[in-house]
Design a protein that fits this description.
- The chain has 368 residues and is an alpha/beta fold.
- It folds into 4 domains: 82 residues, no CATH class; 91 residues, Glutaredoxin (3-Layer(aba) Sandwich); 116 residues, Glutaredoxin; 48 residues.
- 45% of the residues lie in helices and 16% in strands.
- The longest helix is centred in the C-terminal third of the chain and has 40 residues.
- The relative contact order is 0.06.
């Protein structure tokens, strides 16, 4: 921090609150300190550890820098989550249900009951443990109660997931299983998690809804499809409030008047799928067409001109549809207005043309 940074003082008050909260949980021994990047000793420390912007949090274990945090730094929940992820080993040993229940998260949790963790499992977990908890249950009774077999990886979430048999000894298959199941079966997408989900290496089947209306039946139907395809690698399911992100989503060809609609964001960067039949009733066909390459992906190339044309088309369509849905007198008035505008435009062009010709004629007369 720096003394002249008023925002830093505000953040430090939040950190103090967080310190008390963490210590009261009796879960981890975390010590908090502060470094003034403006004084002589502090300046050297900040330079040594590449402090480019302030305020910034850095986590140390002894002299070892473990992690740096500067995103959403005014949000205590995110900071707490970051602290727990960094200080938790890849697999954290659990001995009681109370310990297990203390891991409260909207994300899925991976559980295993093992004395000797598989090397491939540790390697795969390293790729994703900053976003999910991996817990090793050391209580045999708990393992029986949770129905977790030895050498099986179990996913704990809102919905029932299949377990993974580690005897398969297939690293790519294991990595794919973890990558798919680290997200909820049906994930609510917003601007906080969209890019993380989008860049996960999975095809994201995204349901666009109007959350201001009754939407539970749509999500229920969508969830059944997600359960049906839960073992299909590289496909994950999510829904989004389409109206909140309407301007962005319409660039992909969607139309808020036709919600619920589906957009599929490809596992390949900057590619997506969208066709006129992409709706809730055609998910089987959508997945089949993508898997069998019956439809081609589209590339996200949204130039300013393209964005302008898309929005112009939307407004023109809206005007025309409104015109055709009104009564005959209003529609006749609309047509008359269009004709009047056209004739006015022609008259303007004609007047300008005559004025230019007259000016040229006067100049010629003057020179003569």
């Amino acid at each position: 921090y720096a003394p002249q940074c008023a925002y830093c003082k505000h953040i430090w008050n939040r950190i103090i609150n967080l310190k008390i909260l963490i210590q009261n949980e009796n879960k981890k021994k975390i010590y908090f300190g502060e470094v003034n990047c403006d004084d002589n000793s502090g300046r050297e420390i900040c330079k040594k550890y590449d402090v480019i912007n302030i305020p910034q949090l850095k986590m140390f274990k002894g002299n070892e820098l473990l992690s740096t945090y500067s995103n959403y730094i005014n949000n205590e929940t995110f900071i707490k989550k970051w602290i727990y992820y960094v200080t938790t080993p890849i697999f954290y040993n659990i001995h009681s249900e109370e310990e297990l229940n203390s891991y409260k998260t909207e994300d899925n949790i991976f559980l295993i009951c093992s004395e000797n963790l598989n090397e491939d499992l540790i390697k795969a977990a390293k790729l994703y443990y900053d976003g999910n908890y991996f817990l090793n249950i050391k209580n045999e009774e708990m393992c029986k109660k949770l129905n977790i077999e030895q050498n099986h990886l179990y996913v704990k979430g809102l919905y029932k997931h299949d377990t993974y048999n580690l005897d398969q000894k297939d690293f790519e298959s294991l990595k794919s299983f973890i990558n798919k199941n680290r997200f909820p079966l049906v994930n609510k997408i917003d601007h906080h998690n969209f890019f993380n989900t989008r860049s996960s290496g999975n095809n994201l089947i995204l349901l666009l809804l109007d959350l201001k209306t009754s939407y539970n039946s749509y999500i229920s139907k969508f969830t059944k499809y997600a359960e049906k395809y839960k073992n299909l690698n590289h496909f994950i399911f999510g829904f989004i409030d389409g109206y909140s992100y309407e301007e962005n989503l319409e660039l992909y060809g969607t139309d808020s008047r036709k919600y619920p609609q589906i957009v599929v964001f490809s596992k390949n960067p900057r590619e997506y799928y969208f066709e006129n039949y992409f709706d809730l009733d055609h998910i089987n066909r959508i997945i089949d067409d993508i898997l069998n390459h019956k439809i081609n992906s589209k590339t996200e190339k949204f130039t300013k001109t393209k964005i302008l044309l898309i929005r112009l088309k939307k407004h023109m369509t809206y005007i025309l549809e409104k015109a055709f849905k009104t009564d005959y007198i209003s529609f006749f008035g609309f047509l008359c207005s269009i004709i009047l505008i056209v004739f006015t435009f022609i008259l303007m062009i004609h007047t300008i043309y005559k004025f230019i010709n007259k000016s040229e004629y006067n100049l010629e007369e003057k020179y003569k």
